[in-house]
Amino acid sequence: xxxxxxxxxxxxxxxxxxxxxAYSTEAISQTELMSLFEAARWAPxxxxxxxxxxxxxxxxxxxxxxxxxxxxxxxxxxxxxxxxLIAVISATVAVAPGSNETKPLxxxxxxxxxxxxxxxxxxxxxxxxxxxxxxxxxxxxxxxxAVPETFALHCVVxxxxxxxxxxxxxxxxxxxxxNARQPLSAMVCExxxxxxx
Length: 197
Description:
Elements: H1 12-16, H2 30-41, E1 52-58, H3 62-68, H4 73-79, E2 84-91, E3 93-95, E4 102-104, H5 108-125, E5 129-133, H6 138-145, E6 151-160, H7 170-175
Antiparallel strand pairs: 1-2, 2-6, 3-4, 5-6
Protein backbone atom coordinates (compact mmCIF):
# COMPACT_ATOMS: atom_id res chain seq x y z
CA UNK A 1 0.00 0.00 0.00
CA UNK A 2 2.70 2.49 -0.92
CA UNK A 3 0.04 4.91 -2.16
CA UNK A 4 -1.33 5.06 1.39
CA UNK A 5 1.60 6.33 3.40
CA UNK A 6 0.48 8.78 6.09
CA UNK A 7 2.30 12.09 6.52
CA UNK A 8 1.88 11.86 10.31
CA UNK A 9 1.35 9.11 12.89
CA UNK A 10 -2.14 7.63 12.77
CA UNK A 11 -3.78 4.37 13.77
CA UNK A 12 -3.41 1.86 10.89
CA UNK A 13 -7.19 1.32 10.67
CA UNK A 14 -7.54 4.70 8.93
CA UNK A 15 -5.02 3.76 6.24
CA UNK A 16 -6.07 0.14 5.77
CA UNK A 17 -9.81 0.79 5.34
CA UNK A 18 -10.83 1.28 1.71
CA UNK A 19 -13.87 0.75 -0.51
CA UNK A 20 -13.61 -2.33 -2.74
CA UNK A 21 -16.17 -3.28 -5.36
CA ALA A 22 -15.43 -6.99 -5.61
CA TYR A 23 -17.46 -8.95 -3.06
CA SER A 24 -17.89 -12.61 -2.32
CA THR A 25 -21.45 -13.72 -1.72
CA GLU A 26 -20.81 -14.66 1.92
CA ALA A 27 -23.81 -13.85 4.11
CA ILE A 28 -23.49 -11.43 7.00
CA SER A 29 -25.25 -12.42 10.21
CA GLN A 30 -27.82 -10.22 11.93
CA THR A 31 -25.50 -10.03 14.95
CA GLU A 32 -22.58 -8.80 12.86
CA LEU A 33 -24.74 -6.27 11.04
CA MET A 34 -26.14 -4.92 14.30
CA SER A 35 -22.58 -4.37 15.55
CA LEU A 36 -22.06 -1.96 12.65
CA PHE A 37 -25.17 -0.01 13.60
CA GLU A 38 -24.15 -0.08 17.26
CA ALA A 39 -20.87 1.62 16.38
CA ALA A 40 -22.79 4.25 14.40
CA ARG A 41 -25.15 4.81 17.33
CA TRP A 42 -22.30 6.22 19.44
CA ALA A 43 -21.13 8.82 16.93
CA PRO A 44 -21.13 12.45 18.12
CA UNK A 45 -24.10 14.63 17.22
CA UNK A 46 -25.30 18.18 17.76
CA UNK A 47 -27.25 18.45 21.03
CA UNK A 48 -27.37 14.63 20.98
CA UNK A 49 -30.08 14.73 18.30
CA UNK A 50 -28.67 11.66 16.48
CA UNK A 51 -30.32 12.43 13.12
CA UNK A 52 -28.96 9.38 11.28
CA UNK A 53 -31.26 6.61 10.12
CA UNK A 54 -30.30 3.38 8.39
CA UNK A 55 -32.55 1.09 6.37
CA UNK A 56 -30.93 -2.21 5.43
CA UNK A 57 -31.70 -5.17 3.22
CA UNK A 58 -29.99 -8.55 3.22
CA UNK A 59 -28.87 -10.30 0.05
CA UNK A 60 -31.43 -12.73 -1.30
CA UNK A 61 -34.44 -10.73 -0.11
CA UNK A 62 -36.97 -8.84 -2.19
CA UNK A 63 -36.02 -5.68 -0.30
CA UNK A 64 -32.38 -6.12 -1.37
CA UNK A 65 -33.39 -6.45 -5.00
CA UNK A 66 -35.68 -3.41 -4.78
CA UNK A 67 -32.92 -1.28 -3.23
CA UNK A 68 -30.39 -2.60 -5.74
CA UNK A 69 -32.63 -1.47 -8.62
CA UNK A 70 -32.35 2.15 -7.43
CA UNK A 71 -28.56 2.11 -7.90
CA UNK A 72 -26.88 3.50 -11.00
CA UNK A 73 -26.25 0.62 -13.42
CA UNK A 74 -22.47 0.83 -12.95
CA UNK A 75 -22.92 0.40 -9.19
CA UNK A 76 -25.64 -2.22 -9.49
CA UNK A 77 -23.33 -4.42 -11.58
CA UNK A 78 -21.04 -5.07 -8.60
CA UNK A 79 -23.18 -4.17 -5.57
CA UNK A 80 -25.59 -7.03 -6.33
CA UNK A 81 -22.94 -9.40 -4.92
CA UNK A 82 -22.81 -7.61 -1.54
CA UNK A 83 -24.09 -9.24 1.64
CA UNK A 84 -26.25 -6.25 2.57
CA LEU A 85 -27.22 -2.84 1.32
CA ILE A 86 -27.74 0.05 3.74
CA ALA A 87 -29.49 3.31 2.88
CA VAL A 88 -27.98 6.23 4.83
CA ILE A 89 -30.65 8.76 5.70
CA SER A 90 -30.89 11.74 8.05
CA ALA A 91 -33.65 13.73 9.74
CA THR A 92 -33.59 17.33 8.50
CA VAL A 93 -35.62 18.58 11.48
CA ALA A 94 -35.39 17.79 15.18
CA VAL A 95 -36.70 18.74 18.60
CA ALA A 96 -33.82 20.07 20.70
CA PRO A 97 -33.44 18.85 24.29
CA GLY A 98 -35.63 20.93 26.61
CA SER A 99 -37.87 22.10 23.77
CA ASN A 100 -41.16 21.01 22.25
CA GLU A 101 -40.58 22.83 18.98
CA THR A 102 -39.48 21.08 15.82
CA LYS A 103 -36.80 23.10 14.04
CA PRO A 104 -34.54 22.63 11.02
CA LEU A 105 -31.34 20.74 11.80
CA UNK A 106 -28.67 22.41 9.63
CA UNK A 107 -25.95 19.87 10.55
CA UNK A 108 -27.94 16.67 9.94
CA UNK A 109 -25.65 15.60 7.08
CA UNK A 110 -22.50 16.41 9.05
CA UNK A 111 -23.60 14.30 12.01
CA UNK A 112 -24.77 11.46 9.77
CA UNK A 113 -21.38 11.44 8.05
CA UNK A 114 -19.77 10.85 11.43
CA UNK A 115 -22.12 7.93 12.07
CA UNK A 116 -21.43 6.42 8.65
CA UNK A 117 -17.67 6.60 9.29
CA UNK A 118 -18.12 4.83 12.63
CA UNK A 119 -20.05 2.09 10.83
CA UNK A 120 -17.36 1.77 8.15
CA UNK A 121 -14.53 1.52 10.67
CA UNK A 122 -16.39 -1.07 12.75
CA UNK A 123 -16.99 -3.14 9.61
CA UNK A 124 -13.29 -2.94 8.74
CA UNK A 125 -12.28 -4.03 12.25
CA UNK A 126 -14.58 -7.05 11.88
CA UNK A 127 -13.16 -8.06 8.49
CA UNK A 128 -16.04 -6.73 6.40
CA UNK A 129 -15.74 -4.15 3.63
CA UNK A 130 -18.04 -1.23 2.89
CA UNK A 131 -18.48 0.96 -0.15
CA UNK A 132 -20.72 4.04 -0.07
CA UNK A 133 -22.41 4.85 -3.38
CA UNK A 134 -23.72 8.29 -4.29
CA UNK A 135 -24.81 6.93 -7.67
CA UNK A 136 -28.41 6.20 -6.74
CA UNK A 137 -31.81 7.40 -7.96
CA UNK A 138 -32.87 9.13 -4.74
CA UNK A 139 -36.47 9.65 -5.84
CA UNK A 140 -36.80 5.93 -6.57
CA UNK A 141 -35.05 5.03 -3.31
CA UNK A 142 -37.41 7.32 -1.38
CA UNK A 143 -40.40 5.55 -2.95
CA UNK A 144 -38.99 2.05 -2.41
CA UNK A 145 -38.22 2.73 1.27
CA ALA A 146 -41.26 4.98 1.92
CA VAL A 147 -39.06 7.75 3.35
CA PRO A 148 -40.93 10.94 4.38
CA GLU A 149 -39.90 14.28 2.85
CA THR A 150 -38.46 15.53 6.16
CA PHE A 151 -35.60 13.06 5.77
CA ALA A 152 -32.63 13.39 3.40
CA LEU A 153 -31.24 10.41 1.49
CA HIS A 154 -27.46 10.47 1.21
CA CYS A 155 -26.21 7.20 -0.22
CA VAL A 156 -26.46 3.43 -0.24
CA VAL A 157 -23.65 1.41 1.33
CA UNK A 158 -22.68 -2.06 0.16
CA UNK A 159 -21.37 -4.38 2.89
CA UNK A 160 -19.61 -7.65 2.16
CA UNK A 161 -16.48 -9.75 2.33
CA UNK A 162 -13.91 -8.65 -0.18
CA UNK A 163 -13.87 -10.99 -3.17
CA UNK A 164 -11.69 -11.70 -6.18
CA UNK A 165 -11.37 -8.68 -8.46
CA UNK A 166 -11.81 -11.06 -11.42
CA UNK A 167 -15.52 -10.82 -10.59
CA UNK A 168 -15.47 -7.24 -11.93
CA UNK A 169 -15.38 -6.04 -15.51
CA UNK A 170 -12.00 -5.06 -16.90
CA UNK A 171 -12.38 -1.32 -16.26
CA UNK A 172 -13.28 -1.83 -12.61
CA UNK A 173 -10.54 -4.43 -12.09
CA UNK A 174 -8.01 -1.72 -12.91
CA UNK A 175 -9.48 0.47 -10.14
CA UNK A 176 -9.76 -2.29 -7.52
CA UNK A 177 -7.02 -1.11 -5.16
CA UNK A 178 -6.72 1.35 -2.29
CA ASN A 179 -6.31 4.86 -3.64
CA ALA A 180 -4.13 7.71 -2.42
CA ARG A 181 -5.24 10.95 -0.79
CA GLN A 182 -4.40 14.59 -1.39
CA PRO A 183 -1.66 15.95 0.86
CA LEU A 184 -2.70 17.56 4.14
CA SER A 185 -1.61 20.93 2.75
CA ALA A 186 -4.49 20.72 0.28
CA MET A 187 -7.07 20.51 3.06
CA VAL A 188 -5.60 22.06 6.22
CA CYS A 189 -4.43 25.63 6.85
CA GLU A 190 -3.94 27.77 9.95
CA UNK A 191 -5.65 31.04 10.79
CA UNK A 192 -7.82 31.68 7.77
CA UNK A 193 -9.10 30.07 4.61
CA UNK A 194 -6.24 29.70 2.14
CA UNK A 195 -7.52 27.33 -0.53
CA UNK A 196 -8.16 28.03 -4.19
CA UNK A 197 -10.65 25.25 -4.89
